[in-house]
Structure formats: C-alpha cells, structure tokens
Amino acid sequence: MTNLNATQMTELLRIISMRIDEASAELGALDGAIGDADHGNTMARGFAAVVTACVEAANQDMKAGALLPIAGRSFLNAVGATTGPLYASAFLRAGQAFDAQEDIPVDRLPEMVVCFCDGIAQRGKATPGDKTMLDAWGPAARAVTEAQQNGAGPVACLDAALEAASEGREATRAMVASVGRAARLGERSLGHVDPGAASAVIIIAALREGLANLLQGEAS
Amino acid sequence: MVKRSGGNSDKAVLSEMPMRFGDDPLLWAAWLYYEDGMTQADIANLMGLSRASVNTYLADARTRGLVNIEIEPDRFRSVMIAKAMKDHFNLQDCLVIPSEGGDRSLFERLGAAGAQVLKRLVRAGDTIAVAWGRSVLSLAEELHHPGLADIRVVQASGSTTARIRWTPEACAARLAEALGARWVPLSAPAIVSSPEMRERLLAETVLSEQMVVLSEANRIVMGISSMRPESTIHSSGFLDGVDQQAHYQDAVGSVSGRFISARGEPVIGPVNDRTIGLDLAALRAIPQRIAVAGGIEKVSAILAALRGGYVNVLITDAASARGVLTADGWQEPKRRSQVPPPVVDGAAPRVHHGGDKKLINEARDIVDESIDGLLLAHEPLLAKVPGTHRAVMARNGPRSGKVGIVIGGGSGHDPGFWGYVGQGCADAAVMGNIFAAPPPDPILAASRAVHGDAGLLYIYGNFSGDVMNFDMAAEMAAAEGIRVRQVVTTDDIASSPPDARGSRRGVAGNVFVFKIAGAAADLNASLEACEIVARRAADCTYTMGLALEPVRLPDTRQPSYEVGPDEMEIGVGIHGEPGVMRQKIVKADDAADLLLDRILSEMAPVRGDRVALLINSLGGTQTMELYILARRVRQRLKAHGIGVHRTFVGPYFTSLDMKGVSLSMMKLDDELITLLDHPCHTPALTELGDQKGVK
Questions:
Q1: Interchain proximity A81–B410, CB inside 8 Å
Q2: What was the pLDDT predicted at B480?
Q3: What confidence score (pLDDT) does residue A181 get?
Q4: Pair A180, B467: CB distance under 8 Å
Q5: Smallest Cα–Cα separation from B615: which of B595, B597, B598, B600?
Q6: What is the side-by-side order of every strand in the sheet holding B288-292?
Q7: Partner of A147 for a Cys bridge, out of A157, B79, B502, B567, CB 3.0 to 4.6 A?
Q8: pLDDT higher than 80, residue B555
Q9: B134-165: per-residue pLDDT in tens?
C-alpha cells in the first residue's frame, strides 16, 4: 500500500474516536483534578463528529487529503470550547500539508503529528512547559522529524512519536499550569498530568494502531 | 497549697509574685519560662526556689494543661517535607525553609539557609566548586566562616559578561572570601565562539591547570535554573543567539550551565561544545553536590536535577519541595491531629449531599432540550437564531441603527446567558456545550441576525475557549463587513492577583456588564461609546465566590472535586474548577464577611460611594440563605458608609447544581446608575424604569 484513500483515512479517525471514547471517563477525572472535568467528553464529542463528517465525505468519493479540513470544521462546530479551535487548527494545518485532490501517502502519514503540533502551537500560543497538550505534541513532532531523517518507516515514526509524547505527558506532572483554566490553580496543578497531554498520547497511539492494522491487513 | 522548698523565702515569693497570677506559682513559673523566656535557674532565683522545684512546676503546668506544647505547623511541615525529600530522592540531606517569611526575598532566605548548611559540611582541605545563581551568591554573602585550612574554591564554569550581579566569577570569589579560601577562577569565557576555540583554550597552561583543580573538587555549591525567560540561564547569556525552540525544547532546566531534560538526561545543543566548565558527567562524579534552589517556577527543573542525580544535598522551600514531591507521585501522610475520628459502630454513616439525582432524559440531550423548553416558555421574548440550535435572539431587541449586543459562553449557567436577552439588554446569546465555549459558526449566525448596521459588541467571560471562539467569529464577521468590538469580563478576584487582572475569569459580574451595555445600546450610543461604558462597568465589578459542594456534570454524575463534609472551597470557578483555598465551613455572617472583605480590599470604596450588589446562588443554594447573606452584606456596607443603589438576590448566574454563592459588587457613577435603572425586559431581568433605589 502506498496511499491511504478516504475510506482508510476515515478508518484511522474512527479508531482515534473509539480510543478517545473509551478513555473519556479517565480523561474527565484527570481534568476534574485541575479543570472542569469535561475534557474527555469534549474530545469524544469532537472525534465522533469528525467520523460522521468523514464517512459522509468518503461516500462522496472525496480524496483522503480533502477529509482533513472537513474534520477540522466538524470538530470545531461540535465542541467549541478550547479544544475546538486547537484541534480545528491542527486538522486545518494538516489539510494544508496534504493535497486535497490526492490520497495520503502512507509514508507521509506521521507528518500529521507535526502538522497537529504546529497548528495547535499557533492557535494556542502556549510555550513548552506551560502544562498543556503542546507538552506532548511538541516532543512527538520532534520525534517524528528525527525518525524520518533517520529513514524510519511510518509505523516506526509513530512509535517514536508515541514514546516521546508519553514522556511529555509524564513531564507535565512537574509543571505549573500557566495558561488555560488550570492556570488559576497555581501550584495546586502540580503532580497532575495535563489532560490535554494525556489525550494527545491517546490520539497518537490510536493513529499508530490504525496504521499498523491497515498495513497488516494488506500483508495477510 | 503547693509545697515549696526554701522555707525562708516563702513569704518573699508571695509578696513578690505579681497579682495577676493569683496565688498560683505554677502559672507564674510557666509564664516566666514560656512567655518571658527566662531560664529555669533565673526563675528559681526569682521565685526563691530550687531549680528542681521549678522543673517540677513546669512539668505540672503541662500536665494540668496550663501549657500546651504545639509545634508550629509551618515548621513541622518543613521538617516533614525535608524528611520525605531525603527518603524519596535518596539525598544525603535536605533542608526545607518556609516559603513565606518576612521581608527578605526567597533567594536571600535560601542563601542564608544554605550558608548554615555549608558551614556544617565544609572541612579543612576541601576543594569546593561553585556554579552560579542568585541563591548561590546570597549564600556566599551570608556566609562568614574563615579559619579552615587549605580550602580551595574553584569556579565551575567560565566567566560571563552578563548584566547580572550573580556571575560565576562573583559567586566563586565571594565564597572564597567568606571561607578565607584560595580562589581558583576559570580564566576563560563560559561560552566561546566555536568548539575549536574551546579546544585551543583548554590547551593553554593556565586554564588546563585550573581545570585540574576543578576535577579535584569534592563538593560543589550550585543553583538550579529553570528555562523560563527570566531565569539565570537566560540572563547569563547562555541562550543568546541560540534558537531555544529548535535546540532546547526538551530541556526543563539547567545546572552549572548544562541543560537537562525532565528525566534528568543531558540535552545536548549547539552551545554544549562551546561551553567551558564542568560537564554533567563530571558534576555527578563530585561526592557532595549541594544545590540551593526554590520557587514554584523551578519545580520542573529541581525535579529533573534530582532525577538525574546531580544533587545530593538540597536546600529549598516548602512549596517547591512539596511540588517536586507531588510531581513525582508522593502523597502527604496525614498527621495524627488530622486523622478523622474512627466511625463508631452503629453510628449513621455521614451521607455526602446527594447530587446525582436529576430530572433529565439523556445527558447528551440536556442542552438542546432545555433550550427548546426555554424558547417555548419565553416565546414572547425570545426566538431561535435561524440556522442554529443554541443561539437565541430578542424578538424586540435588534433594530436598525442600534448597536447589537451578543453575549455567550458555555451552557450550565442558567439563566446565563439566554436569560439576559431582551429589549434593553443583550440582543442575542450563544451557548455551547456544558461549560464549553460555543463554536464560531453560531456566533457568526447570531451576529448576522441581530446587527443593525451600527456594529456589534461581544461580551463574554475571560476563558481561553470563549476568547478563541469569539475571536474567530469576530474575524469572520469582519470579513463580512460587520464591525465587532469585544469586552471580556474579568470580575473574579480569586482567580488571579490584582496586577494580573487581565487573566481573571469573568463570572456572575457579567450580569451587570450585560445590563449596562444593553442599556447604552438601547439609548442609541455608538459602538465605541457602548464599548467604553461596558468596559468601565467590567472594570468596576468584582466577584468572589465560595462552594459548599462541588458541581456534578450531568453525564458523569461525579463531583468535579472533593469538598469534605465540614469544609468549604473559597474562590471557586463557575465550571467546577477547584478554588484557591479550602477551609472549615463557617456560618453565614462569617462567609459573607469573607467574600465582602476581599472585594472591599480591592475595590477600596470610600464613604459615600455607591454600589450595586448581586448575591448569587451558584445553583444549589436556597434563596433563603442568599437573603441571610444579603442582610449581612448590607449591614456591613452601611457601617462602612457605602450606599447600595440596587441589591439583586437569586440564581442569576449558576454553575449547574453547585452549592455555593458568589458576591458581586459594581462601583457606580452617575452614568452607570442611569444605565442600571434603564428599563429592560428579559426572562431573567426586568426593569420597569420607575424604581428608585433606597439612599
């Protein structure tokens, strides 16, 4: 397989949606410790909307590259909130990186992680160490770039991203939130993992899982 | 009577004993010892007793309960945390000082504590390496301990040209002076222009000899720098001309001019090969590694340094130490005095206030179904914005030539935001999911629906989600030629200190700002004028809230945080965000005072000033209780000489079912009074316009 078509891309997004949904109670609990306990539901709602919109688009014979902006807009309008604009920007950035008239080359799929990181960084204006989702997306994006430079295949790139993101998620425990709602808590946010960083890890893990499934299905 | 020794002096004792002690020599002895700070010998002398008798008196005073020995909680905690740090990170030793204390800065106090520690540890013949930092310099300045033989103090890194006082050379020179030691500088810059230059310099005899001394160090004294823009590593010029984003993203801190990751691993960037001084491997090889560092912003860096094993003696402050420990998964053990009493068999278990019973259909439908219902109930006043599910507009509000007021935010604040839509108030309100900002599309739809070619004013509370979504909508509206201005409310004084007012949350005080802006628009004020007066209303409004029970989200039915059965949470947000402080629950008057005093101290009204009051239920607190608070607040304001123009009492801006209240106060001027009294008709707020406030 060299390209992911719209159906396959939708399948990847469906797996993300599923994994986020499974984790939504857990994410909510993380968020409750430092925020409004809604992160899990918000993310689940957003990705559910993404899948619905992409299924429809895939049925209209769109190319995989065209799904990304659609995903962004559907996420945004389903949730609003803080995560809405952030993940909308993430998907829109990915949409700019891939041609809307084409399917998505498998080898380039890990670049989604880099695009997500850029989009989120630009919209949210957080810096590393602010205890946000960027503290997982940032290391993950750098890990992808490095792995690609070393000639790693797409699954290996996502492995590297996953490891870096997990580490970044754990590092948020030692951070004091300085943007977003948790910022008002000052040092009470210490010791807690940032829920946005936690969901970022889930997304990357699901992306890796979905890609590995597709490649395996093709091989067997 | 109490037995006394020394028969002759008995009379003298009674005649000399101050009257306030009655005839209780135990009390007197205890007073002299604990309050006046006299020694037992002096007391014996004064009272005409033997020392042994004084000792017995003091012991009796404790048994009789005249004297309670209490370890001051702050100190106790410091000791407990220091021990936890030592155990958890396998340190040789750890000293924890209170985070707050007097006029001296944390750096100075850490330095003083560090000086005491170093005095105990330093031995004749030591070679002490010194890295740099504010706390290190203040340690050196606090220390005076000459007289030990053969001590060498060596600079751990080359020198800098930075503007700061705590340069590597200053720290080392000052410490050498304090110890009467020989100072060994590193005669080179800390950062040189190229790796080749570094090699060449290291080959120079002077420097290579100094580096040998450095390699012989048996102790090092150092600071720990964060990566924040104001940190020492930045002000020392280590990152000048370096793209931190590109090369040091993984670094969370630095020790001795070297960068480390959250796991304590070296982060190697372009500066590494150009740095002259101790590297991390050499640092770890030094037997005793004393770090002086504190402050909440350094928690990540301190934790990284501990994880990497770069520190084995730490001097820090309680808040930072606790932060480091919690960040690493440690939990504070309960003290004996804090352990709850055991539950007696057969006693009824304490029932937590039940918040899980709801009259809803499906959790996912509550927002839409409730909006459907309110549109029907308030049909004469409200209509749905075409093409949206969760945006409502006033039937009699928008008109040509009038500025449109669009408000909004998450759902769950009923009657916020829809309840303030109607003639003389807001023209449209856009709601999102529970506690989540609405997306830009419905905001844009509402903007199109209510603008009357005089521009729009968006008003909403300061939450990052609301700001992002309203900003996006404003950009989209502008692209369609609709002029939009925005006023972001920041009335919640618990959420940030006064000097950071711009980052405060906007909560129940919104109601005042909606009312003022709506009135101004109804009086045909221009967009600019509406914005100015709305901003002034927002600036003059202060809110403080407290919760007795947390909010439970309808889908999870779980409390968003735990408040103990006899506790309350001060400074809570309106989305179930925990407050800034938890304390034992108090009675209504004390609770009212607590909220009012915080507001008064910021608003600083003077006798004769006039205010509007809002005593607001956060959803689960009864109106009866609100009026009890209203009574107290009014009494207090009267005593303060503050006139109350209007008092609003009720659930004006809630947080689902949260039990608790907020107090909002807006300082008034003539214009604000006129606008507040201007007629309006909305589901939650109706002004007839002929009411006069009681002076």
A1: yes
A2: 92
A3: 53
A4: no
A5: B595
A6: B93-97, B313-317, B288-292, B219-222, B127-130, B152-155, B182-184
A7: A157
A8: no
A9: 999 999 999 999 988 899 999 999 988 767 88
Strands B152-155 and B182-184: parallel
Give the pLDDT mean for B661-686.
Answer: 96
What HEC string does B595-627 produce?
HHHHHHHHHCCCCCCEEEEEEEECECCCHHHHH
Handedness of CA B125, B131, B132, B136 (dihedral sign): negative
Compute CA distances B321 → B263, B299, B304, whole Å.
17, 8, 13
Cross-chain residue pair A80–B469, CB shorter than 8 Å: yes
pLDDT at A185 over 80: no
Tokens matching residue B643: 């006139």
Dihedral over Cα of B571, B576, B578, B583: its sign: positive
- For residue B411, the cross-strand partners are B434
Instruction: Return d(Cα B551, Cα B410) in angstroms, integer.
Output: 15
Pair of tokens at residue B30: 């205890």
Predicted confidence (pLDDT) per residue in B482-537, tens digit: 999 999 999 999 887 787 788 889 999 999 999 999 999 999 999 999 999 999 99
**What sign results for the dihedral spanned by CA atoms A141, B296, A186, B88?**
positive
* Pairing mode of beta strands B219-222, B404-411: unpaired
Query: Which residues from B are below 8 Å from A28, CB to CB?
Result: 553, 556, 558
Do A76 and B439 count as a contact with CB atoms less than 8 A apart? yes
Considering B234, B378, B451, B575, which one is annotated as catalytic? B575
A182 interaction partners in chain B (CB closer than 8 Å): 577
CA B161-B163-B168 angle, to 5 degrees, is 55
**B615 and B647 in contact (C-beta within 8 Å)?**
yes
Q: Tell me how far apart the alpha carbons of residues B440 and B437 are, in angstroms, rounded to a whole number.
A: 9
B250 min Cα distance to partner chain A (Å): 7
Note if B144 is an active site residue. Answer: no
Question: What is the rounded CA–CA span in Å between residue A173 and residue B205?
Answer: 47
How far apart CA B462 and CA B410 sit, in angstroms, is 12
| Mean pLDDT (chain B, rounded) | 87
**Regarding beta strands B643-650 and B610-617, do their DSSP bridges make them parallel or antiparallel, or are they unpaired?**
parallel
In this prediction, what percent of chain A has a pLDDT beyond 90? 66
Contact B505 A129 (CB under 8 A): no
How high is the ipTM of this complex?
0.76
pLDDT tens per residue across span B251-273: 899 999 899 998 899 998 888 88
**What is the pLDDT averaged over residues B85-95?**
87
Rounded Cα–Cα distance for residues B627 and A33 (Å): 32
The confidence score (pLDDT) of residue B328 equals 83
Q: Are B681 and B422 in contact (CB under 8 A)?
A: yes
pLDDT mean over B311-323 = 91
B554 with B434: CB under 8 angstroms?
yes
Residue A181: exposure state from Cβ atoms within 10 A (0-12, 13-18, ≥19): buried
Element spanning B38, H or E: none
